[in-house]
Please model this.
Amino acid sequence: MQNKSNENFNYQTKFNSLFEFSPISIWEEDLSELWDAFDKIRVEGISDLKSYLKSEPQMIEVLMNKIYITNVNSATLELFEVETKQELLGNFNKLFNKNNINLFEKELLAIWNKEKKYAQKYKAYSLKGNPLFTQIQFRIPQTRDESKHVFVSVVDLTKMKNIEKELLFEQEIYKTIFNFAPGGILIEDKNGV
Model:
């Protein structure tokens, strides 16, 4: 029995280390209250959540408030520019705004339909107000028990998005120079064509 206990402790220690020190933002969610709310909606005879949310749009926010972030790793603190987990967990609603309501609706529908996974790009804000372009992804729980511990990864796409903007800007500059140059411009490939 003691051997099994040591084995579980070692497993938990390794898991905590992987979670805490992952370079990718990871947070743990508890979706069990959302799961219960979905069960209640189904009992009320609702089978098409999309239509229901279209007729009752305020329910998106009500249902999203049933999702609880229970833990975050250090990469999440760094990404969202906060010092402590408590500071982030207490202000999670400040990271998203009304522009993300469409994202929340898609997430709710994916969970309702018990799809295998959810992945979506979205814009959030750090607690210092800096915009973040990210991709959120998680495996959707298939049972209520699974819904108690859902691990969400958040990949920061901000640098990639900024490089993309710079490339588009440079492309526009070259296009303008090419189109308005006072002399002729000839472009050849490496074969002289």
